[in-house]
Specification:
two-stranded antiparallel ribbon; 12 helices; alpha/beta; Alkaline Phosphatase, subunit A; nine-stranded mixed beta sheet
């Protein structure tokens, strides 16, 4: 039998073995469509030669306020008591123990309850903006943006260790294998960027406890995962062609691979095959766009100076944050995030890990604050000046806060740092439909617990999705027999935060 006759026989056999189920599925599809249970069919523009483009722009559930997000993850947990939430009473009671009943059922990472005492703050505080928002003297530049900032002092979490806390902040639960908020946004909305990923990750400092689990797509298809960029040199390793490979030969090779993938996709309809096709094509386009993105020579001297991308090292540089010129890489990351938003990237995650001050709080916090203060303020002002802040949601947050008790683990003679504190901490947001110039929530006079308007991480996520025109109850993905969502089984939209 000739190869042609073999193909005809195979096609005839496939038709006979699949027609019954195929006709049945067609009937089922018609019934579900009549009930409005099927999503909108993909149009021709959503396809890559017959395979749906997984990152094509999708309509939101309702009119959005935000189009892009820059999430400034401050891994390690900054002390809210020394940056955002002044507590004069804590200073008065410095060195005093807490009542036993307050500590009885509390777990700490390192503090020894029997000898723990309160530790005041040596920071100086002042009010800023027309709203009169409090900032410590460690954040003089961000403080100038007070009227654009919504400060939430009443965040809480169930996780008191770094990795689970970072997973909760990023994924809605403190467990592995879940999509991050950036993955959910690109899953729900796609991306307007044609030549860059919809979800980009930039890091500086020591590297977060959560690692790549903080930008994973989890059970969503892999094209919704974050793409880790380097902020100088080759933006993505192995993106460039090897020497001697001309572009036209590479294009022919990609076309051949694409044809094979499309053929296989037509047989099995595995979404990971469409992910592979989209990834190859995006990588080809990125070979020109990614190097241009990180080339800052087109930026003005004043812009580079504002962000501090060439600033000298701090004269008192020390501690966890003083790693591999993190002050320069963080400044570049902030500027790159603005450039990405201009190019349509949906979600940019900037991760800076340096805040785990169990000791040497004053000197380390001074340095870390200096690293982030100027670039973040420049980012907010740059976005606003370019008309991008209204549509760009900026979030500054960490996995938890720090205790009003001093760190007293065994072997330490003095309390010079603070332990992990998930019961009450601070997060702030700006732009993207957020009503700035307001402080939400209150903590008690020691900063131990929340006394007004508690906000869970799931509430934060529900509100973020709402700003993008997505109903957190409807943005779901079926996995292992049930529908999952970013906000798990909780979450409510904090409408008082919104414009």
């Amino acid at each position: 039998m000739s190869p042609y006759e073999q193909h005809i026989e195979q096609v005839r056999r496939n038709f006979l073995t699949t027609s019954a189920s195929g006709l049945g599925m067609a009937a089922l599809g018609a019934m579900l469509g009549a009930d409005g249970r099927l999503g909108s069919p993909a149009c021709a523009s959503d396809r890559l030669d017959g395979v749906t483009n997984p990152l094509e722009v999708k309509p939101p559930h309702f009119a959005p306020k935000a189009k892009n997000c820059i999430f400034l993850l401050q891994a390690g947990a900054p002390s809210q008591l020394d940056l955002f939430d002044p507590k004069p009473k804590l200073n008065e009671l410095h060195g005093k123990p807490l009542p036993n009943e307050m500590l009885e059922k509390v777990r700490f990472a390192f503090i020894k309850k029997e000898s723990a005492v309160l530790m005041g703050s040596s920071r100086k505080w002042s009010k800023h903006g027309q709203c009169g928002m409090d900032f410590s003297d460690f954040l003089p530049n961000i403080a100038t943006c007070a009227d654009d900032i919504l400060m939430v002092r009443s965040m809480f979490s169930e996780q008191f260790n770094h990795h689970p806390g970072q997973l909760l902040l990023s994924c809605g639960r403190g467990t592995f294998g879940l999509p991050t908020v950036g993955s959910w946004l690109t899953y729900g909305l796609g991306t307007e960027s044609q030549n860059l990923p919809g979800y980009v990750v930039l890091t500086s400092g020591r590297g977060s406890s959560g690692g790549s689990s903080l930008w994973s797509s989890g059970f969503l298809p892999s094209h919704y995962a974050g793409v880790l960029f380097r902020n100088e040199g080759e933006p993505i390793l192995n993106l460039s062609n090897p020497n001697g490979l001309p572009p036209e030969l590479q294009r022919r090779g990609l076309d051949a691979i694409k044809s094979l993938n499309e053929s296989r996709y037509s047989e099995v309809h595995d979404p990971e095959i469409s992910s592979r096709i989209a990834s190859y094509e995006l990588a080809f386009r990125m070979q020109a766009s990614a190097p241009e993105l990180i080339d800052l020579r087109g930026e003005s001297a004043s812009t580079l100076s504002d962000y501090g991308v060439e600033r000298p090292q701090h004269p008192q540089a020390t501690g966890r944050g003083n790693v591999a010129n993190a002050h320069l890489s963080f400044a570049r990351n902030c500027l790159l995030s603005r450039r990405m938003v201009e190019r349509g990237v949906r979600f940019v995650n900037i991760i800076y890990e340096a805040w785990d001050q169990h000791s040497d709080l004053d000197q380390d916090l001074r340095y870390n604050s200096w690293v982030v203060d100027q670039p973040i303020a420049a980012l907010l002002k740059d976005l606003k000046q370019r008309g991008l802040l209204d549509s760009t949601l900026v979030v500054w947050g960490s996995e938890f806060g720090r205790t009003p008790l001093g760190e007293n683990r065994n072997g330490r003679e003095a309390n010079t740092g603070r332990d992990h504190h998930p019961f009450a901490f601070t997060l702030w947001m700006a732009g993207g439909g957020i009503r700035g110039g307001q402080v939400v929530g209150e903590t008690d006079e020691l900063g131990w617990g929340i006394t007004k308007d508690p906000v869970h991480i799931n509430d934060l996520h529900a509100t973020m999705l709402h700003l993008f025109g997505l109903d957190h109850l409807k943005l779901t993905h079926r996995n292992q027999g049930r529908d999952f969502r970013l906000t798990d089984v909780g979450g409510k939209v904090m409408k008082q935060w919104l414009v």
